[in-house]
Amino acid sequence: MIRPHLPLNALRAFEASARHLSFTRAAVELCVTQAAVSHQVKSLEAQLNVTLFKRLPRGLMLTSEGETLLPVLRDSFDRIAETLERFEGGHFREVLTVGAVGTFAVGWLLPRLVDFQTKHPFIDLRLSTNNNRVDVAAEGLDYAIRFGAGAWHGIEAVRLIEAPLSVLCVPEIARQLHTPADLLQQTLLRSYRTDEWPEWFQATGLSAHAAPPRSIVFDSSLAMMEAALQGAGVALAPPLMFSRQLAAGAIEQPFAIGITTGSYWLTRLQSRVETSAMAAFKQWLLQVAHDES
């Protein structure tokens, strides 16, 4: 049975009393008298026709009915408080949840986020990173920025940018690389995709099956590039995502040859209704990507 007229004060009195297991401490928190809190709780019990507390000589103990009601109220009050906190200066702050492959998030998106925040100050962006394995529905994401061919079941995908892969390494190793064949004497760092180095070698005119004597496999380009920065080997990674390290001279790109194995895409569930915050982020992201292409 739906009870639309349960008084908020009584619910609040119960929730505070349940947290403190005391009418007296609840009264202090709510800035009312102990008698007022006790009266509100009794009124609520009468309306629900249940006993919510066992009154003990020293405090209170929740009944099974009270234990059932408490977490529901606590969650509801927390959600109300969170929503109210999102009102600021006559505006409602919208939450936008975005998941992004770590390479794109760190190497491209983060340096540009100040511009987005400046243009959209009332959007609270919540960004999580991944290694290109993401479940948009299970993670409750508005958008996911991922790398690939743009075809995912039940997903709408909008292409953002290409990021060709090329050889990146520290200057000390770069000085030893005069031709692509010199790479066969190095430890090659690669992703879990086994076809990337063979495809790059084929683009240079070497055999696509050129097999390096040593290799290390990583599940993210960020970890791979950190290994490259430590001098552990030569990475095959997108220079566009590591432009700051290149500009600082921490790494070098000894060969101009690059291969394209996919693009970065802005994706969302086809069933997800686009909010105003989502539309603003999409428009901004596409505009920046277009302006820099």
Question: Can you walk through the features of this model?
Answer:
- It contains eleven helices and 13 strands.
- With 293 residues, the chain is of the alpha/beta class.
- It has three domains: 8-85, Orthogonal Bundle (Arc Repressor Mutant, subunit A); 92-163 and 263-292, Periplasmic binding protein-like II (D-Maltodextrin-Binding Protein, domain 2, 3-Layer(aba) Sandwich), CATH 3.40.190.10; 166-248, Periplasmic binding protein-like II (D-Maltodextrin-Binding Protein, domain 2), CATH 3.40.190.
- Strands 6-5-7-13-8 form a five-stranded mixed beta sheet.
- Helix 1 (8-20) crosses helix 3 and helix 2 (23-30) crosses helix 3.
Number of domain modules:
3
Distance between the termini: 59 Å
Helix count equals 11
What string, H for helix and E for strand, traces the elements in order? HHHEEHEEEHHEEEEHEHEHEHEH
Fraction in beta strands: 15-25%
Shape: elongated
Derived from helix and strand composition plus strand pairing, the structural class reads: alpha/beta
Strands ordered across the widest β-sheet: 6-5-7-13-8
Low-confidence stretches: none
Q: What are the main properties of this structure?
A:
single chain; alpha/beta; Arc Repressor Mutant, subunit A; D-Maltodextrin-Binding Protein, domain 2; 3 domains; four-stranded mixed β-sheet
